[in-house]
Design goal:
Oligomer: single chain
Strand order of the largest sheet: 3-2-1-4-5-6
Number of strands: 6
Number of helices: 19
Shape: globular
Strand content: 5-15%
Radius of gyration: 26 Å
Order of helices and strands: HHHHHHHHHHHHHEHHEHEHEHEEH
């Protein structure tokens, strides 16, 4: 009776945790409630973890408490000290650790069952463990490489080699066959456990770990945000698989939610770039950089430079201004200067909006978070579909640190790597001012003809310093 009561209470606690996860995800769909959503989800995870460690008495309470404190301290330390520009690689790191943990926990359960039952493992548990091991190991090593690429520790270029697809297929085959062997040959597994041969589960983990590296290395830095989103989905699916191995409903629900959310996000990002997931994973986007001859052909003699003083004069007569932020604004930490300029324009009766491309920055919502941090009102941030029809009625567009998402080649050149990608049609505005450090190409590696347009002016310089100069000029004259 006591045991039944305990299981009933545990199920109710897991249900409460699941409700908190779902409510947290719902709140995270809007910037105004995103923080609350994060806290709600964290509370759900705290409830689920607390109930699990207390009910199952996995380790001594002192050991569990020590582990929770150390883990929480590392998580809080990383989350509060990392720069906003480095948040994508931190997400990648967390994805990898989640996948690795799922693979290890599933493996521990398999060997515990195998040892206790003379090598016999229920088929359903073995299948779930094999799936969790493969996906978890791929997630761990793939995420480490992705985070390394984003952080500059691994080259951001797509590394291709002859026979790469055959190598990946072979590694996947080894991992799958190891899993099949583990499920259908428990008697042999028992012998392996007692002998010196490598148990099949760890061979599965080894093959999947190498596969994770091989899958991400050929993908260029431009596609890392999509890869991070996909690996996020993988980490959730690995956790769900481990939940089936352990018979833990909270882990199944949480993993499934993360997996589904990650897959949806991946699809949205692919659609925003007008590319298929297969093209992202195997296309080698950004592999070929533009040659200096190609750059000269478009830019030489066609670039018009401007200054903060001239931009101030343009703003003086403007009725409507659109600001388009990109990763360069994040790197320069120019969001506060941009927000101040927006506020000054507002005070002088100028209509101001921000045009946010879905893949601007290095992760979805990156620009929204930065601008919100600088107290830019949410209603000023317009998505691509909403802002594009208004450029023709806009006097001045200020592009800060964006490149590929405003490249008109996406609409005009069918052979371009970004052909068909929805872009912000800023060239339709009266005047476009682009703030960049140089004419270097974006992640796609191709030049941007926008910079050579008659109505485009290049404002070279660091984003923060340049915007502060513009703000100073505007204050002086208004």
């Amino acid at each position: 009776m006591v045991e039944l009561f305990s299981e009933t209470v545990l199920s109710l606690v897991y249900l409460i945790a699941a409700i908190l996860f779902i409510q947290g995800l719902r709140d995270m769909t809007h910037p105004r409630t995103a923080v609350r959503g994060n806290l709600t989800s964290a509370a759900g995870m705290f409830v689920a973890v607390g109930a699990t460690v207390l009910w199952f008495e996995i380790l001594q309470p002192e050991v569990l408490l020590g582990g929770l404190v150390v883990g929480a301290a590392i998580g809080v330390g990383l989350s509060t000290t990392v720069e906003m520009t480095e948040m994508p690689q931190l997400v990648g790191l967390f994805n990898g650790l989640g996948g690795g943990a799922s693979a290890l926990v599933a493996g521990a359960e398999v060997f515990q069952l195998g040892t206790a039952n003379g090598g016999a493992i229920p088929a359903d548990v073995g299948i779930a463990a094999a799936a969790s091991g493969i996906v978890g190991a791929v997630t761990f090593t793939g995420s480490m490489v992705a985070a390394g690429k984003l952080h500059g520790l691994v080259t951001g270029s797509a590394i291709r080699y002859t026979g790469e697809h055959a190598v990946k297929a072979l590694l996947l085959l080894i991992a799958v066959l190891s899993g099949v062997y583990m499920v259908v040959q428990p008697e042999v597994l028992a012998g392996l456990l007692q002998g010196s041969a490598v148990p099949s589960y760890w061979l599965l983990i080894l093959a999947a770990s190498v596969l994770g590296v091989m899958l991400v290395i050929p993908i260029g830095g431009a596609d890392m945000p999509v890869v991070i989103a996909l690996l996020n989905a993988y980490s959730g699916l690995a956790a769900a698989g481990t939940g089936f191995v352990l018979g833990n409903s909270a882990l199944i629900i949480a993993g499934t939610l993360v997996g589904a959310a990650g897959i949806i996000l991946t699809v949205i990002m692919c659609e925003s770039m007008n590319r298929s997931l297969a093209n992202v994973l195997f296309g080698g986007f950004g592999e070929a950089a533009a040659s200096s001859e190609e750059m000269d052909e478009i830019y030489e003699g066609n670039i018009t430079e401007t200054s903060p003083e001239e931009l101030d004069m343009l703003l003086d007569t403007a009725n409507r201004v659109v600001i388009v932020p990109g990763y360069g604004m994040a790197v320069a930490q120019a969001q506060h200067a941009v927000a101040e300029l927006s506020e000054l324009l507002d005070e002088n009766g100028v209509e101001v909006a921000f045009g946010i491309h879905p893949v601007a920055g290095r992760m979805p919502g990156h620009m929204n978070v930065l601008l919100a941090e600088a107290d830019v009102p949410y209603d000023k941030m317009k998505e691509l579909e909403e802002i594009n029809p208004t450029f023709a009625q806009t006097d001045v567009v200020i592009v800060i640190g964006s490149n590929d998402v405003v490249n008109p080649l996406a609409n005009t050149d069918d052979s371009s790597p970004i052909a068909g990608m929805p872009v912000l049609n800023v060239a339709e505005a009266g005047t476009v001012v682009v703030n960049k450090r140089s004419l270097s190409p974006g992640f796609s590696g191709i030049p941007n003809p926008l910079f050579a347009e008659d109505n485009c002016l290049m404002l070279f310089g660091d984003g923060q310093e340049t915007m502060q100069e513009v703000v100073g000029q505007y204050k002086e004259n208004h």
